Each structure stands twice: as C-alpha cells, then as structure tokens.
Model the fold of this input.
Amino acid sequence: MTSVLEAQGLGKRYGKRWALRECTIDIPAGHVVGLVGPNGAGKTTLLKLACGQVAPTTGGITVLGGRPAGGRGQLAKVGFVAQDTPVYAGLSIAEHLRLGARLNPGWDAAMARERIERLGLDPAQRGSRLSGGQRAQLALTLGLAKRPELLVLDEPVASLDPLARREFLQGLMEATVEHGLSVVLSSHLVSDLERICDFLIVLAGSRVRVAGEVDRLLATHHRLTGPRRDPGRLPAGQHVVSARHTDRQSTFVVRTEGPIHDPAWMVSRLGMEDLVLAYMDERPAQGPRVALEVRR
Amino acid sequence: MIWLTWRQFRGSAAMVAAALAALAAVLAVTGPGLASGYAGGLAECTPDDTCARFFDRFFDAYHTPFMAVGLVVLVLPALIGLFWGAPLITRELEAGTHLLVWSQTVTRRRWLATKLALTGAAATTATGLCALVVTWWSDPLDKSAPAGYALMDPLVFGARGVAPLGYAAFAFVLGVTVGMLVRRTLPAMALTLAVFAAVQLAMPLLVRPHLMPPVTATFELGDANVQSFGVQRDGGERPQVLLDSAVPGHMGSWVLSSHLLDPSGRVIAGAGESATIAVSTTSGPCSPQQVGPQGMAACMAEINRLGYRQLATYQPLARFWPFQWIETGLYALLTLGLTVLSFWWLRRRVS
Done:
C-alpha cells in the first residue's frame, strides 16, 4: 500500500522553540488518521508541514509522493481545513463555492451545491454571519468539493458544540466513505477521534510518541495491575509506556507483541483514551508534563 | 484568482473611483473657465507689458484650489499605500483566510502576483488619472505661478506629470511588503505611512537636486531676483538688499541656493538674509536726493556697476520632464526591489 504521508527526522523550529522535532512517521493510504495531543504539542505544525504551509527546518516530508505545496498538481491532491475554519467574512456561501470553482480544476460543483443544500445553509449568507458550525461545514465543503486524495483538518471541531461536532464528523465520515479519500485530522479530544479514526498518532512535547493502526495499537497494549514491582524486572519483550505505584501495588501500561503469562498480573485491555493518556504520561528525559483535556 | 482578487477589492475600488470621478467632474467644469480667463488676461496684458501683475492677480485668485488639488495628488499615493497596500496581506493573515486560499489549487506565488498586479495596476491608474486631470486643470496656473509655486518646486513637481505614478506604485508595494513583515494591519499602516513620508521628504531634499548637476551662475541684481531693496530717505543708512529665490531670465527654475556676492566675490548674504551694500549714500544714484520712485533703478544699476552679483545654483524649468522620468524610474526601481523582497519573504517566512 502506498503512503499518504512519509516523514523522516522532520523538525520545525520557530525562533528558539522547536514546535516539532525528530518526527518520523509513515501513514499508509486509505485511513482516517487521528492526530492527538495536548495544545501546543505540534499538531498544527505537523499538519501545516504536510500541506506545505510552512517549510521544515530539518528532515523531509513527502505527501502522496510529492513535496507539499510543490506545485499545482500537488496542491490539487491535498485539501486543508485550517484551525478555526477560516472563511472570508465579506463573501457569501455562494461566492465561496465560486471561489472554489475558480481556483480548483477538479472542482465538484454539484457535490458542493448539494452539500450546502443538505445542510440547510442559505447560499446568500455572508461568511461573517455564519455560526461556528456552519463555518466549519462550509470549510469542509470547500475541502471536499476540491476532490482531494488527502484531506487534512486541523482541529475542525474544536469550537463546535457537541451536536455540531457530531454532525460535522458524521458528514466527514460519509464523504470519506463515498469518495475513498484519506483523512488526517487533529484534535486534543480523544472522544472526537475515537468514533472515526482507524489510525492514531500521539504527539506530545513536540515529539511523536506513538503512531499506528488503532486496532493494532489496542491489541498490543495492556494494563498490568499487581503487587508492587520494579519496571526493570518485567520481561524483555514488554516495553513500559507508563508506570504508577502505590505502597503495595504497581500499575503498568506495556506494549508487547507476545502474550502475558505472569499470573501475578491482572491484565486488562486499554481503550483509546487510556492508551493516549498513557503515552501523554510517558516522560522520557525530563520532558515537560503534558496535560490532556479529556471529554466524554 | 483574478475573480477573487477583484471580489475582495471591488468595494474600496468603487469608493476611490467615485471620489476621483467627483474630483474630475469638478475640475472638468471649472477647467475651461480657468483656461479662458488666463488666455483673455494674457491677451490684454501683452500689449502694455503688465503681464507680471496679471500673473500675480490671476494666481492669487486661485491660490487655494491650486494648493488643494496639488495636495490631493500628493496624498493619494500615501492613502493607497495605507488602505490598499498594507491590509492586502495582513487582512488575510489576521483572519486566517490565507490558509483557506492557499489550500486551493493555486500556488502562493500566483496568489501574491495576482493580488499585486491587479491592485497595483488599479493604484497606479487611479493616481495617474488624478495627476493627469490635475496637471491639465492647473496648466494656466502653473504658467502664471510665482517663485515657490512653479512646476519645478517640490510641492508642485510631485503633483504633476508622471512622477505620481511612481509614488503610487511604490507606496502600494511598500504597504504590502510592510504588511507581510509586520503581519498586523494597524502597525503596518502606521509604519507604511512613516516610511513613505520619510522617502517623500528625502527625495526633494536629498536626491532630486542631484538628479542632474545643477547650473551655477552669477546674475546681475534686478527686479526678478531682489525681493526687497531699501534705501532710507534721510541717507543715514546704507541700502539693504534681500535676495529672492529666483533667477532672472529663467522663469520657473528651481533655485537651490541664492547668495549675494560683493565685488570681491565674497558671499555676504545667504538665503533669506539681507545684506548691506557698501555704496555711497551721500552722493550719486543712491543718495536720498536721487532715489525716488524712478531712481531705484538707477541705484540698482550703480550697485551692479560696483560688482555686486547674485550667485545661484538652480535646476532650470527645461529639466522638468527629464526629472519626471528619472524620478519615476527611481520609484519604479524601488517598487521592483520591494516586489522581489515580498515574493522572497512569502516563500521564506510567511505561513
């Protein structure tokens, strides 16, 4: 299977601060990829790098086999819905669609019109008078009607209420299935991603903590609870992601390919949120403690 | 991209077009009357050689509108830089809409090129038309303007001919570039205004006098270059001479310096200073007995005979068009440089 996004040692520095560093990932095509991490973890930077909105400081990134924003051909293949879903305040919805038609050779006018109609939006309404949810839907429509192979969305539902959030994600899912496109979307809320993602990237402290298919990640991660024990005494194949100790008890989240035989442990499966939290908790080389906003 | 640029720009374009149309209408209505008044007056004054007085009268009557229309042409490029140039990119950066448009199938370079070309063309066209109308309207006044208001003088030079095109293009691209560097509209506008004003002051003060080597020459004193000439009736004091910023025989020149030389060639008075002339006031043409309304000329002739001269450096009126083209070229170069900088900055830093 081909890759939609390949990065090797990718890094981006703003002034003295590294927004993203040593990012090496390979995302195969055909997935809905969730990029999760606390605010300021580098999600927006990674997505902007993928769309060529910013240039990397170090390393390289290839999107759909080409350099991001490396020409009209590349631009046509990648759709991008930026954070806070900006639209032109002075332009009406109809004019936004016209903008899309004028600026994209592969524009699907019928689909755009039909989507706006289905959403019950008034084409004469100006961008400045749209609610957050309507604005997000308009931005998504622009991104979809361009008919990209990869659609990148940066915190598309961050400012939406739960109902608008659900509607938006549902619309996105339907379009993904219908047009067979790959999607990368970021969120600091695991619950948003849980429903729709089949590939997960956890980003914290400007580094990638884990990346992989959700099913596989859930199958290889376990929570072990048992009598207090030093993490160093776990079997070699079990990589400790996070560890918590009380006086008598230890709780580990481990990644392992093999089964766990030790009868002293109570083994339980992890949900996506537990998994993400475990990786956020991981503190290699005194990285700053990151907090994850959890929402049910 | 052209459609989008036009769609974003059409509001302010319509506003400026309406204002310019109003100005043009007013000037078109009053222009012919002005021209015929000048032609009539000139025909009347030529036979009895009183045209100098006619010019003064005619110019004084229209002094205020003359200054006002000139000011419009001088200020328009600054306004264009402030309100078309600076917000062109910052507005998008502030609203985040640059991310929307950059994720369409249009390269950033083409996006900027279209915005710059279309809005820049409108900016230069508007200013060009404005300058054209004003140049046409002011023609009779320019021909009758006294020293200080002639075509070559800084305030008037910048409001005539083709130079305003250069100013407008420069101000616009300056606004765009500053906007890209500063990224916020209000600071960008303030900085654009400051830089543009500085350049517009530096040009006539520091650069324009040297576009071509100025002419230096000495002139006899006379009505054309002496502003005041005083002889006291009681003969107690020697006559005082204050030079004007004008040179005889070269009407409309831009006088850069004007000094009074004594017979030995020493400078005895600079611009705006009056000097005492060492001429006998007890006898001869400058004595109180001789000096009357008609005798002033004889006294002046005596002073010239003694060897007092005006030493002036000036740019003659004939250089008006060469200067206009050179200056427009300079601003075009500045505009080009800033354009290159803006594209480079867009590629490297804006995101």
User: Anything to note?
Assistant: The radius of gyration of chain A is 21 Å. Confidence is low (pLDDT under 50) at residues 284-296 of chain A.
